[in-house]
What does this fold into?
Amino acid sequence: MIRILEKHGLPDDATRQAVFFLHEAIFGKPAGKKVQERLNTVPDLLVLLAETADGQLAGFKIGYRQDPGTYYSWLGGVLTEFRRQGIAEALMQHQHEWARRQGYLRIQTKTMNRWRSMLILNIQSGFDIIGTYQGMDGSVRIILQKELKEKRQGEKSKGQ
It folds into this structure.
């Protein structure tokens, strides 16, 4: 059983430490200056933390307002030992529901071919590829976008 903790706005020290721990464990390097700065400056920041029933951190997802109608799903991941258990999808669905409730019209994200499982999950979750660009490091970035539609009364989320 996974529980998702929702932190909106400027993160407290415990939330920051959780993000930094997960970032290093998942990506193999400490969160850089860019991550630390964005946690302090971006508008409408939402940090989601996934934890097990016994309180062990399993994953995270962070997003923020890109423009008045677009929420940017920026950064996230799941620890290796918790992958393939639906945690990334649960974090994504939670973020999308939150953004819909806040009045956002769409979600945008970026990924790379090397994060294939995330690319596939995004496409399976209704994202469309809307473009690509070459990053400063020379790698190709894939831009994806999903329109957030209002749920009709009685409509269930995917997987329910």
Observations:
- Residues 13-27 form the longest helix (15 residues).
